[in-house]
Each structure stands twice: as C-alpha cells, then as structure tokens.
Amino acid sequence: MKTVIINYYLRMNDYPCKYSLASLRLGEYLNSMNIDIDIFPVFLNSNRIDEIAKELCDKYDIICISHYVWSKDITIDLIKKIKSINSEKEIIIGGPEVIYTNLNDLDGSLLIYGEGEKSLYNCIKYIENGKKDNSFFEDNPNVFTKNKPNYKLVKNELTYINPLFTKFDNIGDEFLYYETSRGCAYNCAYCGFKSRHEVAYFDLDFVKEEIRRIGMLGFKEVFVVDANLGGTKERAKRIMEYFNKYAPDSKLTIYLRPEFIDDEFISILKDSNLKEIRIGIQTLNDNVPNWVRSNSLYHIKEELPKLSKNNIPWKVELIIGLPGDNMVGLKKSIDFVEENLKPTEYCCYPLTVIKGTEMYEYYLQGKINIDKSGMAISSYSYNNDELLGMQEYSKLRMNKYLQANYHDLDLDKKIKRNKVMIKSIE
Q1: How many CB atoms neighbour CB 271 within 10 A?
Q2: Whole-number Å distance between alpha carbons of 25 and 16
Q3: Angle (nearest 5°) at CA 256 between 251 and 257
Q4: Residue pair 353/345 in contact by the 8 Å Cβ criterion
Q5: DSSP 423
Q6: What are the φ and ψ backbone dihedral angles of 236, each rounded to 5 degrees?
Q7: What tens digit of pLDDT does each residue of 152-186 get?
C-alpha cells in the first residue's frame, strides 16, 4: 500500500523550506521499516483543497495528516473533502489537537496522541493487515477513534534508525529545521515542551553523521528546534563543535538556557557561524511566581553579558502577560535587558496559554483570562487595558533599541519579522 504524509508549510520568506522536521523524521523512519512512503507539501493557506484531496485519493492508499492548532481548520476541511471523494479512504491523524477536536470532525480516522514514529508504523501495519488485530487498541493505548475514544499518553522511547537525508535528500538547501533532543528538563508553566514525560536524546554519533550530511548538502541556514540545544550543557558544546567542523557554512539559530553559558562555551560560540542564539528570560519581575519560570537569575546577570562582550549574536525573549507582572515590572525587565545584558536584540511576546501546561490549569482555575486563540487578556495583576498598554510600550522600546543598536540592512526586515509596529520615536 502507498502511504503519504501531508506536510503543511507557511512563511516561506522567513523559513524557506516546504518540509517540516516532523515529516522528515517520520518519513525516514517509515522508509527504514520498508513502508512505501512519500511526503506531500501543502501550503497552509491553500485554496486548492478540492484538487489536493482528489490527487491524494488517486495516488495514495493511506493518508497521514498532522493536526496542530494552526492547521486545525485546513485538516478538518481536507478530511471532509477526501471522505466526500472516497468514504473508505484510510486516514491517520496525529498531533496535539487530536484530543481537543470534536471527534465527529475526525470520524473514520485513526488518531494518535503523542509522538508518532512507532505509533504511526503500527497504525499503517494495522491497516495493511486488514484491521484484523482485535488487540490493536489495547496494545496501542495512545491510538483511538471516534468509536473507540479512550486513550492515554504513553511513554515513548526515541525511535529512529536511518539518519535524515537517507531517502528524502532533495528538499532544497536554503533552510532546514533540525533537532538533537526532544523535551525539556526544566519546568516553566507556560511551555509546551513538557508534553513528553522526560527529555530524549539522539545519540551523539548519530547527530554527528546528520550534521556531516547537512554540511555535504550545503544547507545555508539551520534552525535547531531543541528546547535547549542538545538538552544539556555538555551535549550542547559537543554539537556546536560538530557544526563548526562538519557544517561551518550553515548559519545557525539555536535556543540556549542561561545556565548553559560558561567561558568554555563562549570560546566555542565565538568560532561558530551563528545567525542568532535565542535565550528566554521571560521576566525579571519578582512578583511573577517562581512556579511560572525556572531561570537562574544568577546566570542571567553573570553569564549572559559575556555573549555581548564577545560580539556573539543573541536575542533575549520576554513574555508580556505573565500572572504577577504589570507595567512597572515590564519596564524594569526591559531596562535591565537594555542596560545590563545588551543583546543584539530582544523581543516581547504576548503570553499564549497552551493546553496541557500548568498555565492552562491556572486558567481553568479562573486566575487568568484568555481569548479564543489562547492569548492572555487579563489576570489578577493587570486588566485588559493595562495589558494592551504593556504591549504598545514594549513595541516602542523594541523598535527604539533596534534602530539605535542594529546597524544592518536587515533592520526593517527584523522589525517586520518580530511583528513590532514601526512608529515615530522621539
């Protein structure tokens, strides 16, 4: 049977690649298990759903679709179109939104809750064998359907065999999402990285081989999506050394924790081809409860300034709307960032309350209010008008900082990319 993975893509000007990391990982694993697999890129805002549904029905026996909050509408629409053409077409859906969607919209599909490699393979074999295994749902408790709606998140070992680019190596060389670990060892109440029980690490020799291939294929830009590069400080150092040796021409974007920075790592980063290090400190307001964030204030104050002193490009990420914060706290956080940390740039992002996080439980208790998209609109420390004022204030400060400190032709692009409004600043 011929199987396809639907791969949604968007924002090609910022991230010029039609292939997501999830699709590539799933595709390579299924290929290693002798599944006849393709990846089918679909533009997220496509107006060709009817044509796409017909092509999928004509070419493939099993259609696998990812289901995220940003792809929810197109996924449901695509399923309806496929079923209208062939009501018996086999569809497998995975992603965090499967447990938050009306099952009537996903009727007739196998649904996977949690990471997909092994579960997706099991679903495909179940279909290929005529769905005759009566113990399938008992053996795969994270797989469910409308008619068998019970599920539970299971502990998944990191499952991989072939490195990236074993089969899918013709994906362009402009941009690549990459990973060396999954999950996060830290506990921040707003963060969706805690969806897995524990951090999983790709073997370093496996990572080295993939980075070697990244270099050989000549990727111009690589965005490593690990919550924190490598998952640990020592792994992060080794991985950066691999990039320096095997893919020195690939410009990197990475996430790091303040606790990862020390003098040894600074010396490695100075020799690296970095587009940007992103470090989330979220807030420096002591009135924000400790359970919300887990950063070390010592490392923020003592280690992060070393990045700027060594001309290493990095960005501070702050969050607007954390419970306990207000305009006074936001001003103090921004003042500290500008005067003490002096990053290349900083961004202030509105708080999004993600289902399944501690912050979502806080919302259910009525201690923070959100809109339909999950954006915070008020809490016990600020009302909606005050929040809007905080957002406008942060936009002015970010623009002013960029204009004063970022001497580069990409200034306007950076301002637009970070979704900050260009205003007249005196």
Answers
A1: 11
A2: 18
A3: 170
A4: no
A5: -
A6: -60, -40
A7: 988 777 889 999 999 999 999 999 999 999 988 88
Q: How far apart are CA 74 and CA 70, in angstroms?
A: 9
Q: Give long-range contacts, CB 8 A cutoff, 24+ apart: 72-75.
A: 72/97, 72/101, 74/8, 74/42, 74/44, 74/45, 74/46, 74/49
Tokens of 366: 């009525």
CA distance 159 to 29: 8
Instruction: Please list, in sequence order, all residues whose beta carbon lies within 8 angstroms of the beta carbon of residue 80, skipping any fewer than 6 positions away.
Output: none
Which two structure tokens, joined as six digits, stand for 242? 């691999």
Neighbour-count burial of 307, counting CB atoms closer than 10 A to its CB (0-12 exposed, 13-18 middle, 19+ buried):
buried
The band of 188, judged by pLDDT with boundaries at 50, 70 and 90, is confident
- Note the pLDDT tens digit of each residue in 211-249: 999 999 999 999 999 999 999 999 999 999 999 999 999
Residue pair 323/380 in contact (Cβ under 8 Å)? The answer is yes
Torsion angle in degrees (nearest 10) through CA of 85, 90, 96, 97: 30
Q: Residues with Cβ < 8 Å from 40, sequence gap 6 or more?
A: 4, 5, 6, 7, 56
Q: Cβ(208)–Cβ(242) under 8 Å?
A: yes
Which segment of 8-17, 112-121, 152-161, 316-325 scores lowest on mean pLDDT? 152-161
Coil, helix or strand for 351? Answer: coil
Please tell me the total number of residues recorded for the chain in this structure: 426
Give the separation between CA 398 and CA 421, rounded to whole angstroms.
9
Single pTM value for the model: 0.90
